[in-house]
Amino acid sequence: MSFIATPEFLHFPQALPLQSGASIRDYTLAYETYGSLNAERSNAVLVCHALNASHHVAGVYAGQDKSEGWWNNMIGPGKPVDTNRFFVIGINNLGSCFGSTGPMHTNPDTGQVYGADFPVLTVEDWVNAQARLLDHLGVQQLAAVLGGSLGGMQALSWTLQYPERVRHAVVVASAPNLNAENIAFNEVARRAIVTDPDFHGGHFYQHGVVPKRGLRIARMIGHITYLSDDVMNEKFGRQLREGLTLKYSTQDIEFQIESYLRYQGDKFSEYFDANTYLLITRALDYFDPARAFGGNLSQALARATAQFLLVSFSTDWRFSPQRSREIVKALLDNRRDVSYAEIDAPHGHDAFLLDDARYLNLIRAYFERIAKEFA
Amino acid sequence: MSFIATPEFLHFPQALPLQSGASIRDYTLAYETYGSLNAERSNAVLVCHALNASHHVAGVYAGQDKSEGWWNNMIGPGKPVDTNRFFVIGINNLGSCFGSTGPMHTNPDTGQVYGADFPVLTVEDWVNAQARLLDHLGVQQLAAVLGGSLGGMQALSWTLQYPERVRHAVVVASAPNLNAENIAFNEVARRAIVTDPDFHGGHFYQHGVVPKRGLRIARMIGHITYLSDDVMNEKFGRQLREGLTLKYSTQDIEFQIESYLRYQGDKFSEYFDANTYLLITRALDYFDPARAFGGNLSQALARATAQFLLVSFSTDWRFSPQRSREIVKALLDNRRDVSYAEIDAPHGHDAFLLDDARYLNLIRAYFERIAKEFA
Q1: Residues of B known to be catalytic
Q2: How far apart (Å, rounded) are the C-alpha atoms in residues B77 and B81?
Q3: What's the CA gap between B113 and B203, in Å, rounded?
Q4: Which of A141, A207, B128, B213 is exposed most, by the fewest CB atoms within 10 A?
Q5: What is the pLDDT of residues A359-369, one digit of tens each?
Q6: Could you give the angle at which helices A212-226 and B180-194 cross, rounded to 10 degrees?
Q7: DSSP SS3 for B223
Q8: Mutate to test the interface with B, among A177, A188, A349 (most CBs of B within 10 A)
Q9: Which of A20, A196, A257 minimises the CB distance to B183?
Q10: B199, B190, B151: which is closest to B55 by C-alpha?
Q11: Do B175 and B284 meet the contact criterion of CB atoms below 8 Å apart?
Q12: Contact pairs from chain A to chain B, CB under 8 Å
């Protein structure tokens, strides 16, 4: 039985200045909290999300048994991040499409739907927006900030933008920036969306259409990069969808892997916002804390004072263990307190969301250590 | 100075039965030959091509200095495959779009352009069509059949379909079949093409349009898989296209890698046929000589009597060295004569087309050995 989660919404009338020089005002953030903030306000944990996730991190919505949060195996009563001890906060990032203000909402300056005019956001902007929400919740300092993939980048950025507000950062299956191949995959996905005739330059809302073709392609590409070669071969291999006979068709589904990818693409295109896809992949592309230091990550991370846990997965080829090790090395160059685990797991990048006993126990042990600090 | 190559065209009135059960009649194959067939007819080398290549393997066309064949560094007078010694044959595969009969031609049964109705072809069908052309050229037995990537699959298939007609097979950067990830990338590319509104179910010719959006996406995906992570980082890294300032745009080009991919996609969409793309990627998907043997590659290769050279490249993640080693192992299980080289090269799958001294010298040495057999 999962516990009941309840989304909340906070409106921010004051403009948030963005890294691009633009700003956004009159925005709303959707968020959820689990557990209770202790009297010392020292047990708060912020969970940052990746591309296709939200503030709904754990629990289920009342009356919706299947609505488990995206990290429900990690967070909850008695879970590795135990909500009996920690006050856990999930926030839907600005520009996303799950409750916070995004491209499908109305621009207060024009009265029109933002669409492609929604300001371009960065990881740093998200962290600033999250910090304002924490102010509202009365959380001055986080016991920990935790995230996987793009969420891990936010966790890392927290330690640089607000070093005094973070005691621990847990950065899972992440990277200090995207490499050329990562950017390349993002760009192909974006081109598929932008060149879909139903995209209408990002203003498809008023045409009553959705660029589903592009979203499907984007999602199919994404899924390939989330899985390892090994797990794809194990799950699908060269299995035909129907029996043993080839159809000799270029357009019909022949192999199981095709069926899987089309299904994932179709599903995604039903609910994900195309402009949000562009915004979030661009935030990924831009993230690069070393950039302001001529590419020197050690210098970039000198500001961080938190203690760190880095976790990577052996078969993750999107953000390989090597990328986590770069962060570890840069932190060690600064004599920071860093723990690092490379989990031997077959599932590729997806592993950070899956049940792997060694991984879940590792996170549990780390949070037990954190809990001792305020117990 | 490259030598002058001249394309030739041979019409086949007799129907070619295809693996699908369909057949194709009144088709033409474009081909080129370099060097001379010796009196014993023992020095012929067939070069098989991959997706985006043709019968124009080497040399240049008269008056077109920049029209070098796609393997001009490998084949020609004094080159590793020396046309002073060997009679080299390049054939454009059926269904391709560079001169042989393909989807853009007229179906003699209907008087209409084939379009999506062009029969689905397999590697085995191509080999059968190539064998007929060799009959016409008076080549009963090949000194060698040589190919990279999909071309390597054809070379391998030659040794199984016509074991008595092949003395040596040189299989470069290839695989005994596609794995799930390879099929997945093909499927995304196909979906991008098929769902482009300008595809018109494969009958775009009569609409006077070309599904360029889909072709661009397909080619961008292809390019990512042809390059290694390392070479992409070295060539492009996170370099911005314009100076040092970010534009904060989701649709404009920001990084060099984006510029490169868009350029490659645009160029490709100008000349490559969309139905051909579907056909060739499907032939790749289907190739699997072990299939008829319950997946047992050793049993499948028992028919081969040729001597083999297998070559792979360390950073090729499309057809990794592991895939070549599977072929080597299966041949050794049958006590065949096999040489195998794993070239430590940074360029990924593309390496098989590039100048790498160790690789070119290896092929040279192997063909010198072959030449001694008839010298």
Answers
A1: 149, 316, 349
A2: 8
A3: 8
A4: A207
A5: 999 999 999 99
A6: 170
A7: helix
A8: A188
A9: A257
A10: B151
A11: no
A12: 169
